[in-house]
Write a structure and sequence with these properties.
The complex is a heterodimer of chains A (216) and B (333). Chain A has a single domain, classed as DhaL domain (Serine Threonine Protein Phosphatase 5, Tetratricopeptide repeat), CATH 1.25.40. In chain A, 63% of the residues lie in helices and 3% in strands. Chain A contains nine helices and two strands. In chain A, helix 2 runs antiparallel to helix 9 and helix 3 runs antiparallel to helix 4. The radius of gyration of chain A is 16 Å and the shape is globular. Chain A starts with 7 loop residues before the first strand and ends with a helix. With 333 residues, chain B is an alpha/beta fold. Chain B folds into two domains: 185 residues, Dihydroxyacetone kinase, domain 1 (Rossmann fold), CATH 3.40.50; 129 residues, 2-Layer Sandwich (Hypothetical Protein Tm841, Chain: A,domain 3), CATH 3.30.1180.20. Helix content of chain B is 32%, strand content 23%. Chain B is built from eight helices and 14 strands. In chain B, strands 1-2-4-3-5-6 form a six-stranded mixed beta sheet, with helices on both faces. Chain B has a six-stranded mixed beta sheet with strand order 9-8-7-12-10-11. Chain B has a two-stranded antiparallel sheet with strand order 13-14. The termini of chain B are far apart. Classes of the chains: A mainly alpha (216), B alpha/beta (333). At the A-B interface, helix 3, helix 4 and helix 5 of A face strand 4 and helix 3 of B.
């Protein structure tokens, strides 16, 4: 195994991230579903758990594969197993991240920021959403912004900042009135609740944080 | 949770197996990816009509697959949109050479998944048009929200477009007809009780014994307002006023009136609802020339009702009356 600089992330670490996702969504299934029951249709937890369990089942076949192939497999798996709005949205995030990761077995901090930014833009385009509409975009936009500054510290430290920013962004959805998704049908009654999509985005990034801090 | 199931994981697949064996003369069921399709598909030189959505609304949509209505239906998990691989496989299975119309209810997930599916189908050289149904007047129409939900008018559009396809209309004609039906149909619903999604195991929302949710969605989305329960006649007034004033339906209009049960309300109560709705329509000067009463677009075991009005003309009436033979609807054959 090649030794990577502290400001790079390997395909192995990304696979570990996806493995962590399956665990974390299984663990937080009921919590996400409860958030969704308050302002949506009570299926987000089960959908995310089902999708990332299907992803986990494909991980064994992805050892030694390049990161573009990994992201594409994740995208197609999420699109075909999650359903709801989160399937196409998270699926599109990974699909748009493919082109910047094709043929690579590691991504530098800068490359990771670039592919995640492409993913974010694809997701916003698919959902026709911008920040402030009480969606996953509210967690993801500040998270990707926090990833962009490439300094001297390790990528792991940058991901720590990403998670803090995502959490803060998710918390900011609580007082918002939903403008997109099923919660928008509630109008003013959607205020006072944490957006389940923003919450699941935080979990996605926390799973990445856990992976980058895991001993190799 | 008290349900007639074996395990929460197998609810959809076991129900599909049941449908397949119960109605083997009319439909076939494909698994992984899941879709229900006409036993005689593909029907050559006919526009194919495809719909889909979360499960839990039976008989919609699978119960409407058959001659004169849908060529295929894609069921998602309970209350969850189906996925693009299902729509793509179903579109390929029923395409008879004249293209396929996707009838999509306006929910964020359904719209996105159908958009992805249509993109993929076109990339494979198939002709696909999509129409989004958004007839629920309980939702304030605004460009700043996801827009109105698709409810009762969906079934009327499926029946009417299915008949037009059988009559040999082109894909563009059937698409425009679907838009016309959507433009002339309006609905609103209310719930007396919540419903329990099997894999959640407890009611989607809590509704005290003496309260009701007015403007509820078919997935148990809370509605516009919650209030103390009232006699049926007053509840019907609360639903009919926003429906009539929205289009608006005017004196002299010929309409189809559809009183729907949400799954847990018996037919005897739906007729009490119909009685009052008919009276209100008549006093407004509307001519109810067609009626439709029963539980056709449900929300699991939710008790409650929805009312849909569709403004008719000669063409729509003829297409509504045309023969249909599906598991849930049959006449003229």
């Amino acid at each position: 195994m090649t030794t990577l600089a502290a400001n790079s992330i390997s395909a192995d670490t990304l696979l570990l991230w996806l493995q962590n996702c399956a665990e974390t969504y299984q663990q937080h299934k009921d919590n996400l579903t409860e958030l969704d029951a308050a302002i949506g249709d009570a299926d987000h937890g089960a959908n995310m758990a089902r999708g990332f369990t299907a992803v986990r089942d494909k991980l064994a076949g992805l050892n030694e594969k390049d990161i573009g192939t990994i992201f594409k497999t994740v995208a197609m798996t999420l699109i075909s197993t999650v359903g709801g709005a989160s399937g196409p949205l998270y699926g599109t995030f990974f699909l748009q991240a493919v082109s910047g990761a094709n043929g690579k077995t590691a991504l530098t901090h800068e490359e990771l920021a670039t592919v995640f930014d492409a993913g974010l833009r694809g997701l916003m385009n698919r959902g026709k959403a911008v920040a402030g509409e009480k969606t996953m975009v509210d967690a993801l936009v500040p998270a990707i912004e926090a990833l962009k500054p490439v300094g001297d510290d390790s990528l792991a430290a940058a991901i720590d900042r990403v998670v803090i920013a995502a959490q803060k962004g998710a918390d900011s959805t609580v007082p918002l009135v939903a403008k997109k998704g099923r919660a928008s049908y509630l109008g003013e009654r959607s205020a006072g609740h944490l957006d389940p999509g923003a919450a699941s985005t935080v979990l996605l990034l926390k799973a990445l944080q856990k992976a980058v801090h895991s001993p190799a | 949770m008290k349900k007639l199931i074996n395990s929460t994981e197998n609810v959809v697949s076991e129900a599909l197996h049941g449908m397949a064996v119960a109605h083997s003369d009319l439909i076939k069921v494909q698994f992984s990816p899941n879709f229900i399709y006409r036993a005689d598909a593909p029907v050559k030189n006919k526009v194919a009509i495809l719909s889909g959505g979360g499960s839990g609304h039976e008989p919609m949509h699978g119960g409407f697959v058959g001659k004169g209505m849908l060529d295929a239906a894609c069921p998602g998990a309970v209350f969850t949109s189906p996925t693009p691989d299902q729509m793509l496989a179903a579109t390929k299975a029923v395409d008879g050479g004249k293209g396929t119309l996707h009838i999509v209810k306006n929910y964020t997930g359904d719209v996105m998944n159908f958009e992805l599916a249509a993109d993929m189908a076109r990339a494979d050289g198939l002709q696909v048009e999509s129409v989004v149904i958004d007839d629920d007047v309980a939702v304030k129409d605004s460009t700043w929200t996801a827009g109105r939900r698709g409810v009762g008018t969906t079934i009327l559009a499926e029946k009417i477009c299915g008949a037009a396809a059988e009559a040999g209309k082109s894909l563009a004609e059937v698409r425009d007809l679907c838009k016309k039906v959507n433009g002339q149909g309006r609905s609103m619903g209310m719930a007396l009780t919540s419903c329990t999604v099997p894999h959640v195991g407890k009611p989607t929302f809590a509704l005290p014994e003496n309260e009701m949710e007015v403007g509820v969605g078919i997935h148990g989305e809370p509605g516009r307002t919650r209030m103390k329960i009232k006699p049926a006649d007053e509840i019907v007034e609360l639903l009919m006023e926003p429906i009539i004033s929205d289009l608006p339906y005017k004196s002299g209009d010929e309409v189809l009136m559809f009183v729907n049960g949400l799954g847990g309300t018996p037919l005897i109560e739906l007729y009490i609802v119909y009685r009052k709705a008919e009276e209100i329509a008549r006093k407004t000067g509307l001519k109810i020339t067609r009626s439709f009463v029963g539980s056709y677009i449900t929300s699991l075991e939710m008790a409650g009702t929805s009312i849909t009005l569709l403004k008719l003309d000669g063409e729509l009436t003829r297409l509504w009356d045309a023969p249909v033979h599906t598991p849930a609807l049959r006449w003229g054959i």
